[in-house]
Amino acid sequence: MRELQDQGRQWSRHAARYDDLFLDAFQPGVVNPVLGMLDAVPEPGRKTVADLGCGVGPLLPHLVGRFGRVIALDFAPGMIAHAQARLGPDAERVTFETRPMHDLEHLAGQLDVAVAINSIVMPDVRVIDRTLRAIRASLAPGGVFLGVVPSVDAIQYHTMLLLDQALDRGLTPEEAERSAAFHAEHHYYDFAFGRFAFRGLRQKFWQSFELEHRLTKAGFSAVELDRVLYPWDENLACGADLAQYPQSWDWAFRARVS
Question: How far apart are CA 196 and CA 192, in angstroms?
């Protein structure tokens, strides 16, 4: 509980600058398959969707007016406030809840669609497993869980490209490794356990195999993975010099309830 309260305060503190500090899966130039997955939901006007860990609300404009009922949940009050401000008058069409994502008993069996965009990032995997079980229980039979999680292997891919770039400039292997680690900000990461720590925030980064494992462990079926592709721009270190290479990514997924 203390960990959740601390992280809630930290996320609230960073809410005003969230778009400046973190990649936005909905910004122009990003290829995000979750939007197509949402478009494929039949008869959305008759269904309930929940944006779990809504953050500052970048997904909500895609949900309001399309789904019959929209719920937005986040444990950080500052995030909820910014999400409401983003929507303006449309905020009245959304049920906002300030609570952790594992606290969904009141929604048991009520959701047709649950979406979590870069919010399944709790550093304690026990909390992740508890959260995924709670989301599974909140979905009605035939319900679908869509989401995006940050990819740790994309950081390693970026590191590889930065290393090659440094070697091509004539640096020694040792110099090239130091340069790549610096630009890829390795000091924020624990690669062995997929953890990221930044200005008081603590997050989980994912490998694809762990995502499949934990979704299946929580009781989801028909797990499908895809990638959110990010352009090589100023949001990624030395991005302008890497434009000829395949894009960096986060993991997208769709999982169903039988």
Answer: 11
Separation CA 7–CA 25 (nearest Å): 21
CA pair distance 117, 235, nearest whole angstrom: 18
pLDDT band of 116, cuts 50, 70, 90: very high
**20-41 burial: b if 16+ Cβ within 10 Å, else e:** eebbbbeeeebbbbbbebbeee
Q: DSSP letter at 246? A: P
Domain tally, the chain:
1
pTM attached to this predicted model: 0.90
Q: List the domain range (segments joined by +) for residue 53.
A: 2-150+199-235+242-256
Angle at 225 between CA 15 and CA 80, to 5 degrees: 20
Q: Per-residue pLDDT averaged across 217-244, rounded?
A: 95
Q: Is residue 159 part of a domain?
A: no
Are residues 112 and 143 in contact, defined by beta-carbon separation less than 8 angstroms? yes
Does the structure show a pLDDT above 90 at 201?
no
- pLDDT per residue as tens digits for the range 234-254: 889 999 999 999 999 999 999
Q: How confident is the model at residue 199 (pLDDT cuts 50, 70, 90)?
A: confident
Q: Crossing angle, helix 125-138 and helix 208-217, to 10 degrees?
A: 50
- Taking the CA atoms of the chain, what radius of gyration do you get in angstroms? 19
Domain presence at residue 250 = yes
Would you state the structure tokens that stand for residue 147, as one six-digit string?
Answer: 């989401």
Q: How far apart are CA 69 and CA 50, in angstroms?
A: 8
Is residue 182 in some structural domain? no
